[in-house]
Amino acid sequence: MTALLENLAALLILAASFFLLVGAIGLMRFADFYMRLHAPTKASTLGVGGVLIASMLVTLAHGRPGLAELLITLFVFVTAPVSASLMAQAALHLRVPSRAPLPREALRMRGGE
């Protein structure tokens, strides 16, 4: 059973590293702040969550419940999207330019129409 859990943890770490790599590539390739904010937040949430769940499986295989890893995973899954949303709202408030066209509602909120 221990070998099965460790192999599953290794697969989770590989999947998590793929998501983290995709997020890093998105951070480098996207054009403006808003696009660059989107890629790493989504990918890092999945990447860090995968690594922590893999850690929880390994500690479970060795007889210790992974309560700390579970709490950290829940914390990351809650705080990463909230912080990304707040940064995007702050950027809109500071009128950080975007290369993408803004929808009409956002233009009205910014006083553009």
TrEMBL record:
Top-level lineage group: Bacteria
Sequence intervals crossing the membrane: 12-31, 43-64, 70-94
Name of a matching Pfam family: PhaG_MnhG_YufB
Keyword flag Acetylation: no
Keywords tagged on the record: Membrane, Transmembrane, Transmembrane helix
One term of GO molecular function: sodium:proton antiporter activity
The protein, known as: Na(+)/H(+) antiporter subunit G
Organism phylogeny: Bacteria, Pseudomonadati, Pseudomonadota, Betaproteobacteria, Burkholderiales
Underlying gene: mrpG_1
